[in-house]
Amino acid sequence: MPGTTDLTKLTAAETAARIASGEVTAVQVTEAHLDRIAAVDEKVHAFLHVDREGALAQARAVDDKRARGEELGPLAGVPLALKDIFTTKGVPTTVGSKILEGWIPPYDATLTQRLKAADVVILGKTNMDEFAMGSSTENSAYGPTGNPWDLTRIPGGSGGGSSAALASYQAPLAIGTDTGGSIRQPAAVTGTVGVKPTYGAVSRYGMVAFSSSLDQGGPCARTVLDAALLHEAIAGHDPLDSTSIDAPVPSVVAAAREGNVAGLRVGVVKEFSGEGYQAGVMQRFNESVELLRELGAEVVEVSWPSFDRALAAYYLIAPSECSSNLARFDAMRYGLRVGDDGTRSAEDVTALTREAGFGDEVKRRIMLGTYALSSGYYDAYYGSAQKVRTLITRDFERAFASVDVLISPTTPTTAFPIGERADDPLAMYLADLCTIPSNLAGNAAMSLPCGLAPEDGLPVGLQIIAPALADDRLYRVGAAVEAAFVDRWGHHLLEEAPAL
Ligand code: GLN
């Protein structure tokens, strides 16, 4: 029987296999992770809320199911860290904001329901930038999360809690959401795997809305196969989400098991390089390109002229949608209420609550979005941004007419120090330069580790982009690259992270 520490080092696939064979119980696995959280999370701060009782109850249910001889699903009993943006019935959901402090949702998000139906053990809710606005988790109202590779650095954002939980072995699986990069960018800077599925593949019902036409939930894990197993557990049509895709979920697990790039055409996006890109990031990226060639892929350079406009378009569209979505936080329906002493009008209570409940970045976005949507400016700002969005979508279509996948670095730099960009929103926004275009176009993209930057010894992420509904290609390519790197290094990259 493996020791407690060993259980936290296993992949999700291995964990499920050991539980299914009876080698360990789901309760033992859950307890090992709860112990690990108790030992390290004071330093990391990945979790906002640990649901000890709920997790153990879910684990016991899995063990009972096995004892009754019922068949267990591919992730039964595997612990997971859930981004605090998904509603969980009876368990606090804050979205990293003071405005929802103390709110206990009366219902589960569709994604939460699916995890429970798959017998995944939800350990708790992870830290995030307030309303998923940010690239470092420093915008959380509950304080920052540390990067397990170096606790003085950011774990990425907005889903830094989820990526840090994986990299510090507090959970083998996690869930993130990606509006402009918040799954892929944290994966890149923590040496983990993160996938933004095709827009509409994973239900947004019960996922607190930031920018509805961009938001997409997705899997985070330490290996490509684990991400695929989680992907299949959470994806699929949901009549409760009007933008949910009514199409079969691509066979991503089969693709991850196959892992093959021979004969594949891979496009390197020319615009994802140059000024602002760290030398060590480009070095590891260029080595990945070479690796793909060695594995039998045909690599060509493609140019994507609309790329330079993507960031500007995103920072008009996302704030515009957020200014509308966040109007529901009016002090009347959920969470915080300030100044309701019987002497003030409802409008004053709403204003006082928003003043106290929203952080600076959220206020900045609401103001930006309200301005961009106001009459007289709508065409010049929001309208132009939507036109750029169409051009980007067309450029992707053109690119995918001649290549199967596109690749780039996931982020221009490795994890930066906590505080370095906190007072400089524009510098912060640049962290998502390579990830934002896929959100605007709605296609699928993955980040996986491709080495450590020589100058700082921190993880570098390789981004793979596939056309909408071709999510399986990400896993086929990702698994091949991962296997080749593990072969070359002799171990998984995360094994080089300092022990906490
Ligand atoms: N960093 C981007 C932003 O702040 C993306 C965030 C996200 O994907 N949720 O909007």
Report on this structure.
The chain has 500 residues and is α/β, with parallel strands linked by helices. It has a single domain (7-306, 390-496), classed as Amidase signature (AS) domain (Amidase signature (AS) enzymes, Alpha-Beta Complex), CATH 3.90.1300.10. 41% of the residues lie in helices and 12% in strands. The chain is built from 17 helices and eleven strands. The chain has helices at 4-9, 12-21, 26-44, 52-67, 110-117, 160-167, 184-190, 224-234, 252-258, 279-294, 310-325, 346-357, 360-373, 379-402, 425-429, 436-441, 471-489; strands spanning 47-50, 79-83, 121-126, 173-177, 193-196, 217-221, 265-269, 298-302, 405-409, 444-452, 459-466. Strands 1-3-2-4-6-5-10-11-9-7-8 form an eleven-stranded mixed beta sheet, with helices on both faces. Helix 5 links the parallel strand 2 (79-83) and strand 3. Helix 3 packs antiparallel against helix 4 (52-67), helix 11 crosses helix 13 (360-373) and helix 11 crosses helix 14. The two termini are 24 Å apart. 57% of the residues are buried. The mean pLDDT is 96. Residues 132-135, 158, 178-182, 210, 318, 432 line the site of glutamine.
